[in-house]
């Protein structure tokens, strides 16, 4: 592809004024520039390798600095621009929560998948101009002027296409831009055009097993009963449920669920049958749901069904639509009821499934014999549109009129903006999420949006130099196109550059070519088992690179790409430059650039740098001044560090994890081991024998008098050190305890299944005999103490949660350096049956599959179930409140 038809721009409006933190990063990215003194760079001879080849290093010609950053991480708290009122709500897998109640680490709903994403940063509460955006379905959302929205213009023609050949019309606008566009529209411009925001994917709620909120009825039965059932108090008092329908298919569904439908009446000439279901359990279930006694105007959908699984909500909609629902000849769905609450509940279900629902109130009545109008109860019609309407109807006669496509397939279903009004100054807060394209779900299931400095760097470099090759990369091309690529195109537009005039985009190749033959190339960085060495890069050479969300990418992928940065480097930047951005993470990025396993800040390697900054800390000078002033007033240095550098420890709670009661701000303690460890008291070692990603030992002491459990440290047997086997890890632990001069004796416990496993070197000898043999040669005096069998997983996890909550006065404290345990407690998810979701991942270097989370948390389970086993047995047997462990058990556990 050539650039012979492209021309240089006449009036480039480069509008970029970096904040102080962005400028620190910006200086590191500049060509032929020493960040220490601003001097130029040259390559100097520093010696020869063993083969007598000359070795060169870049050096500043002015200050002779040789530590010139080439691999640069910028981040710690990702981009902002998503401010909502403190009382605005955000959808989570557990329902809607106010922005003011959110915490870092909280799980909220992803708009693109309907699943989970995490809040990685909460920006300070600030006052800004707020707008109220009104949508076609009657809903609205209040947001700040800088709040970002992903949207498209209807009937807007564009030449840009994606890799599938579809027109690309998506763009990211601020609320202020929407306001200005709507003002112009109201003055007569943009006739026939509208702004459309995307719909959320069907939301995956995890309230299906809410304590105290059972779902005793099948969702379809409940929906049908709400539609055509009579469940008033008069009927329910006789242990009876009335149900009227003319469709045998609906009655058959009741029979399939075990209800007796043999008692019915039918009026002469009528088609409908009036069924009487005599079933005390049926009525009892309705009373449990608080539906028994409701008339037509007071019916509603119980909360446990509103937050059911996607399939359960679809079945519920089928029951509602088969009874009081209507499908017209065009395939449009509607639902009618005289209950305002029920109408809003039905709209909630439809929106939660990724659809549009509009509720309209219609006055109802009739004319009597005298021609006078007699008013009746108003009806509420819910007009529903989804991309899977046939799945919301079960009756064949209605289902055949439904359509999967919207508007005959000529347009995409979305939520139209009908108006926007200025509210004035309000207090609000931005949230930063780890969703690749920054979208989350707000009030009424409205989808709202989330690298800027990197895009500016790539574009300005391509303008500055002819014939350079700049790479922009993410884990997948899909996430790259949905986020960073759009930002690049936005910057080009803002600077006055025109597509097909000053630059050309080839979406099929994933390239953006400038008039001067410089080019930006999209790259996918995901690890592929069939290409572990990234041979797909071939022998390609590039000049600079920007990798967004590097925490999603392997260290090897980064190093392979960095090795390709050599195209015209000497004529331009003098040294290779790669910019990486990320949210706070717990993988190799943190250990290489930010802090070590002890949480101490590290000194980056030569040629590498980490600049903590937030994209929200942007060129808006008044906001930046207010933000920095607020930070400077914080007296607590730890809090100040967290806000400035991002929360790299992830010490907040995660309501969606199986250990939902763990709260890092309460249970993690800095320097716990130094403060409480007593070498003269018994030490408990809890073993996990999985060899991948490592073998693990949790070390603890228990203060029974004060009812405190201290998790002192974790000892890991890493494969790269050949310590992920029982003998090697036992020797490592022994050497450590000797260095600590531990004289109080030790207990050895863990998974009871370890008794049956044999080591690789001594067949027939189980893990615990190996440990005892190695630790027993000296003063450690190990004693093996095991549960007879593994405790039931769901029950023991709930017990651990209770201990986190202070069960029977117990306090559980964990040293903050127990990083792997903390990861388990935060990220180990729950299956629907209450067990741990132990999904496997593949090591890109070795190809070995292993469970990423759960090893250290298993150790914690065994520790608490054995050494607090009096409490554990009482908890499991439901004997109410529990006392401290009995003296007999204490003596048995620690008789040294």
Keywords:
single chain, 896 residues, alpha+beta, 26 helices, 27% helix, flat, disordered C terminus
Largest sheet, described in full? 9 strands, antiparallel
What structural class do you assign from the helix and strand content? alpha+beta
Query: First CA to last CA: what distance?
Result: 80 Å
Mean pLDDT: 80
Assign an overall shape. Answer: flat
In percent terms, what proportion of residues is strand?
A: 25-35%
Record field, number of beta strands: 40
User: Can you tell me the residue ranges where pLDDT is under 50 for at least 5 consecutive residues?
Assistant: 77-83, 158-168, 614-646, 757-762, 880-896
Radius of gyration based on Cα positions: 32 Å
Describe this protein's structure.
The protein is about 25% helix and about 25% strand. It is an alpha+beta fold. The protein is flat and about 110 Å long.
Give the secondary structure arrangement, pairings included.
Blueprint: H1 20-29, E1 41-48, E2 54-60, E3 71-77, E4 83-85, E5 89-92, E6 95-98, E7 107-109, E8 116-122, E9 126-135, E10 140-144, E11 148-153, E12 171-174, H2 175-186, E13 195-197, H3 219-228, E14 229-230, H4 233-236, E15 240-245, H5 248-256, E16 264-265, E17 273-278, H6 280-288, H7 303-306, H8 310-324, E18 325-327, E19 333-337, H9 340-352, E20 356-367, E21 373-385, H10 396-399, E22 415-433, E23 440-441, E24 447-448, H11 452-464, E25 469-474, H12 477-482, H13 484-494, E26 503-506, E27 511-514, E28 519-524, E29 544-547, H14 555-563, E30 577-582, H15 588-594, E31 608-614, H16 621-632, H17 637-645, H18 664-667, E32 668-669, H19 672-676, E33 683-688, E34 695-703, E35 708-717, H20 726-739, E36 746-750, H21 767-775, E37 782-784, H22 793-804, E38 811-815, H23 819-827, E39 840-842, E40 849-851, H24 855-867, H25 869-877, H26 887-893
Parallel strand pairs: 3-30, 3-31, 25-28, 25-29, 29-30, 32-38, 33-36, 35-38, 36-37
Antiparallel strand pairs: 1-2, 4-22, 5-6, 7-8, 8-22, 9-10, 9-22, 11-12, 11-13, 13-22, 14-15, 15-17, 16-17, 18-19, 19-21, 20-21, 23-24, 26-27, 27-28, 33-34, 34-35, 39-40
């Amino acid at each position: 592809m050539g650039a012979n038809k492209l021309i240089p721009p006449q009036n480039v409006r480069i509008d970029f004024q970096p904040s102080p933190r962005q400028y620190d990063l910006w200086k590191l990215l500049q060509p032929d520039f020493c960040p220490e003194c601003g001097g130029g760079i040259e390559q100097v001879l520093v010696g020869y390798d063993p083969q007598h080849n000359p070795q060169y290093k870049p050096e500043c010609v002015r200050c002779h600095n040789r530590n010139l950053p080439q691999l640069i991480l910028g981040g710690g708290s990702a981009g902002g621009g998503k401010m909502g009122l403190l009382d605005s709500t955000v959808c989570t897998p557990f329902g809607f929560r106010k922005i003011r109640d959110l915490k870092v680490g909280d799980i909220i709903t992803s708009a693109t998948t309907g699943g989970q994403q995490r809040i990685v940063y909460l920006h300070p509460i600030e006052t800004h101009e707020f707008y109220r955006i009104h949508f076609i379905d009657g809903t609205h959302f209040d947001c700040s002027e800088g709040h970002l929205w992903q949207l498209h213009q209807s009937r807007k023609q564009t030449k840009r296409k994606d890799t599938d050949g579809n027109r690309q019309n998506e763009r990211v606008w601020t609320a202020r831009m929407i306001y200005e566009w709507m003002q112009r529209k109201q003055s007569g411009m943009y006739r026939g055009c509208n702004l459309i925001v995307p719909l959320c994917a069907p939301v995956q709620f995890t309230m299906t097993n809410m304590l105290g909120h059972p779902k005793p009825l099948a969702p379809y039965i409940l929906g049908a009963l709400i539609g055509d059932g009579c469940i008033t108090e008069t009927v329910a008092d006789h242990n009876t449920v009335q149900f009227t329908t003319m469709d045998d298919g609906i009655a058959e569904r009741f029979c399939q669920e075990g209800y007796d439908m043999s008692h019915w009446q039918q009026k002469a000439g009528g088609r409908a049958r009036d069924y009487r279901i005599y079933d005390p359990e049926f009525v009892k279930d309705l009373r449990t749901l608080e539906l028994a006694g409701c008339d037509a105007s007071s019916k509603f959908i119980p909360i446990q069904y509103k937050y059911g699984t996607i399939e359960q909500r679809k079945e519920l909609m089928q029951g509602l639509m088969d009874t009081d629902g209507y499908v017209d000849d065009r395939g449009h769905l509607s639902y009618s009821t005289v209950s305002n609450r029920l109408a809003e509940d039905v709209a909630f279900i439809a929106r939660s499934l990724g659809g549009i629902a509009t509720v309209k109130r219609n006055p109802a009545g009739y004319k009597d014999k005298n021609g006078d109008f007699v008013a009746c109860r108003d009806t509420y019609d819910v007009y529903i549109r989804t991309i899977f309407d046939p799945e919301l109807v079960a009756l064949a006669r209605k289902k055949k009129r439904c359509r999967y496509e919207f508007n005959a397939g000529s347009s995409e279903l979305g939520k139209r903006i009908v108006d926007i009004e200025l509210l004035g100054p309000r207090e609000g807060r931005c949230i930063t999420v780890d969703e690749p394209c920054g979208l989350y779900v707000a009030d009424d299931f409205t989808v709202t949006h989330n690298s800027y400095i990197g895009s500016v760097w790539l574009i300005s470099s391509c303008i500055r130099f002819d014939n350079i090759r700049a790479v922009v990369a993410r884990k997948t091309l899909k996430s790259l196109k949905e986020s960073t690529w759009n930002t690049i195109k936005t910057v080009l537009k803002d600077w006055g550059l025109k597509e097909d005039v000053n630059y050309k985009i080839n979406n099929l190749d994933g390239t953006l070519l400038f008039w001067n033959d410089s080019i930006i190339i999209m790259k996918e960085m995901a690890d592929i088992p069939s290409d572990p060495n990234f041979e797909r890069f071939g022998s390609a050479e590039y000049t600079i690179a920007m990798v967004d969300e590097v925490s999603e990418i392997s260290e090897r992928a980064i190093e392979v790409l960095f090795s390709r940065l050599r195209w015209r480097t000497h004529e331009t930047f003098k040294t290779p430059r790669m910019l990486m951005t990320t949210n706070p993470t717990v993988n190799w990025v943190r250990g290489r650039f930010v802090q070590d396993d002890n949480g101490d800040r590290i000194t980056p390697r030569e040629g590498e740098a980490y600049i903590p900054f937030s994209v929200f800390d942007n060129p808006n000078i008044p906001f930046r001044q207010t933000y920095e002033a607020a930070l400077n007033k914080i007296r607590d240095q730890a809090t100040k560090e967290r806000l400035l550098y991002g929360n790299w420890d992830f010490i907040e709670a995660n309501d969606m994890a199986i250990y939902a009661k763990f709260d890092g701000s309460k249970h993690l303690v800095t320097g716990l081991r130094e403060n409480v460890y007593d070498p003269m008291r018994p030490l408990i070692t809890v073993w996990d024998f999985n060899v991948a990603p490592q073998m693990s030992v949790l070390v603890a002491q228990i203060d029974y008098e004060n009812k405190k459990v201290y998790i002192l440290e974790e000892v890991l047997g890493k494969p790269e050190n050949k310590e992920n086997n029982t003998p090697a890890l036992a020797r490592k632990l022994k050497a450590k305890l000797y260095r600590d001069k531990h004289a109080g004796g030790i207990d050895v416990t863990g998974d009871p299944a370890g008794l049956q496993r044999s080591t690789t070197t001594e067949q027939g000898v189980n893990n615990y005999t190996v440990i005892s043999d190695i630790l027993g040669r000296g003063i450690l005096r190990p004693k093996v103490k095991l549960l007879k069998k593994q405790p039931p997983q769901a029950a023991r996890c709930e017990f651990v949660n209770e201990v986190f909550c202070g069960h029977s006065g117990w306090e559980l404290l964990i040293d903050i350096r127990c990083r792997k345990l903390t990861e388990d407690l935060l990220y180990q998810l729950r299956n629907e049956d209450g067990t741990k979701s132990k999904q496997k991942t593949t090591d890109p270097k070795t190809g070995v599959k292993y469970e990423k989370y759960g090893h250290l948390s298993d150790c914690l389970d065994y520790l608490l179930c054995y050494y607090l086993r009096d409490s554990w047995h009482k908890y499991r047997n439901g004997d109410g409140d529990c006392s401290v462990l009995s003296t007999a058990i204490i003596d048995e556990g620690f008789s040294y």
